[in-house]
Amino acid sequence: MDKKVFGYPLKKIGIIGGGQLGKMLSQKAKQMGFYVISLDPSAECPAASVSDEIIVSDFYNPEKLKELVKKSDVTTYEIEHINTAALKELYNKGYNILPSPYCLEIIQDKLRQKQVLKEAGLPVPKFEKVESFDISFFESFGFPLVQKATKGGYDGRGVVVIKDSRSMDKILKTESYVEKFVDVEKELAVIVARNQKGDVVSYPVVEMVFDEAANILDMLIVPARVEKDIEDEAKKIAIKAVETLQSVGVFGVELFLTKDRKILINEIAPRPHNSGHYTIEACITSQFEQHLRAICGLPLGSTKLLSPAVMINLLGEEGYRGTPLIEGLEEALSIEGVSFHFYGKKLTAPFRKMGHVTVVDNDQERAIEKARKVKEILKIKSEVKIG
């Protein structure tokens, strides 16, 4: 058959992970004519409602991963904490797994990730492997510092800030590394896509504001309110970082802009990223469509920003755990430019990501004000109060 002619479905896409990222990826895949098989520990995961098949399994079961990969034309993932050994074995046999499990193996180990980036000449904060939990090691590295678990951390978990020797009770007694505490002016991010031909595109630089209590992205502003030279440098560094990994797909590159105007790489995610959700409404090609294009050998789409946008995460309210109740939805949706995304998780809990809202407006400051208003109005609670 002519390679330029596609049958239906276009391809069978296997997705490891059925959370919100898997759901949004599946929604776009179904829109484009793909067949979707999702693997997740829960048969009621968010992606289940938009998948053609669901394989119920944890992310480390080699037999179930093999089943998914063998059923799929291309396998990808929306979560990093998965069995790379099993995936490498399948990849080495010629199965199409993208981004490659070798790339994922580097990303999974945050210390190795930092080492690879440093070896490539990319700017990263000063770091060192934790060789001892004795106070002398931390003192010799220098306070203030950030200790990060090499594996398993996400959404602020596995990360502690140690300001001085009096904060030593916070130490993580696990395999970890320390990093110089960076005096940050802004936290930035860039979504970068690379396809099988080596073509690379980047999205606009975004500005991230974090919820200090939960250490989770709270508000994202695009375009970032930075000078043109900072924007250009951030894109250049993000693209080089992805090219260093030599893999295929969409990558979220998180960056620090320091008070002395330097850009440092914080970390990279080898998948669609929270900082790219705004692309669904605000860009010609969403990060989810771009990921599918990249891993399926299709031309990369335009990353043009159609409008300034602000995204806020909808987190489960403190003091509530149980079946979610959405408060303030009608009032929030009466605001022009608001798009509401609910992930379909059956249970809410404090600071759990339950959905997000994107606000688009031709006036950036007006978009920010609207987003702040939505944040005040829209709450995810439940009938059951805790604590």
Any key phrases for this structure?
387 residues, Rossmann fold, Dna Ligase, domain 1, D-amino Acid Aminotransferase, Chain A, domain 1, 3 domains, 19 strands, 28% helix, globular, N5-carboxyaminoimidazole ribonucleotide synthase, purine biosynthesis, PurT/PurK_preATP-grasp, nucleotide-binding
Characterize this entry briefly.
28% of the residues lie in helices and 28% in strands.
Could you explain the architecture of this structure?
The protein is 28% helix and 28% strand. The mean pLDDT is 95. α1 crosses α9 and α3 runs antiparallel to α4. With 387 residues, it is α+β, with helices and mostly antiparallel strands. It contains eleven helices and 19 strands. It is globular, with a radius of gyration of 21 Å. The longest helix has 18 residues. It has three domains: 86 residues, 3-Layer(aba) Sandwich (Rossmann fold), CATH 3.40.50.20; 55 residues, 2-Layer Sandwich (Dna Ligase, domain 1), CATH 3.30.1490.20; 199 residues, D-amino Acid Aminotransferase, Chain A, domain 1 (2-Layer Sandwich), CATH 3.30.470.20. Keywords: ATP-binding, Ligase, Nucleotide-binding, Purine biosynthesis. InterPro entries: ATP-grasp, ATP-grasp_carboxylate-amine, ATP_grasp_subdomain_1, PreATP-grasp_dom_sf, PurK, PurK_C, PurT/PurK_preATP-grasp, Rudment_hybrid_motif. It comes from Caldicellulosiruptor morganii.
